[in-house]
Amino acid sequence: MYTGGCLCGKVRFEITGPITDIVYCHCSQCRKVQGSAFATNGVVNADAFTLVSGKKMLVGYEYAPGKVKYFCSGCGSPMFSKNEALPDVVRIRLGTVEGEIAERPWCHIFVGSKANWYEINDDLPQFDEFPEK
């Protein structure tokens, strides 16, 4: 089981299953949301994701039709996103997970739009877009 939360601690969650499909996303939206060169995102089954506290603190931003990114309204921490087309999935921002994570990232995505000031220095596969498995 994993636990996590936002910077101010008002939004808390639990994950009772594995975190899969962990990627380093270099798209311009993830860079803007994180304020960094990339975001590290993982997928959890919606049935394994529970908001323990802070539901009223969450603010959603619909960045594309049916796709919503959720943030803590108190501290601004990006928390997770949901896609209406994939109702059984929650995409979590790994920086909000506390403690050690057993699973590991498997690739870099949207490297075609990565920050020009960041160099990828690992051997993970790189994709210009979202890869099909």
Structure description:
With about 130 residues, the protein is mainly β. The chain has a single domain (about 1-115), classed as Metal Binding Protein, Guanine Nucleotide Exchange Factor, Chain A, CATH 2.170.150. About 5% of the residues lie in helices and about 40% in strands. It has one helix and eleven strands, in the order E-E-E-H-E-E-E-E-E-E-E-E. It has one helix at about 30-35, and strands at about 1-5, 10-15, 20-25, 40-45, 50-55, 60-65, 65-70, 80-85, 90-95, 95-100, 105-110. It starts with a strand and ends in a 24-residue tail after the last strand.
Q: Short summary of the structure?
A:
The chain is built from one helix and eleven strands. The chain is mainly β and 133 residues long.
The number of domains is 1
- Could you tell me how far the N terminus lies from the C terminus, measured between alpha carbons in angstroms? 26 Å
Strand order of the largest sheet: 6-7-8-9-4-3-11
> Which outline best applies?
globular
Low-confidence stretches: none
Name the structural class: mainly beta
Rounded Rg: 14 Å
Number of DSSP E strands: 11
Average pLDDT across residues?
A: 96
Please report the number of helical segments.
1
How is the CATH topology named?
Metal Binding Protein, Guanine Nucleotide Exchange Factor, Chain A
Order of helices and strands: EEEHEEEEEEEE
* CATH class membership: Mainly Beta
Percent of residues in β-strands: 35-45%
Largest sheet: 7 strands, mixed
The CATH architecture name reads Beta Complex
Helix content: under 10%
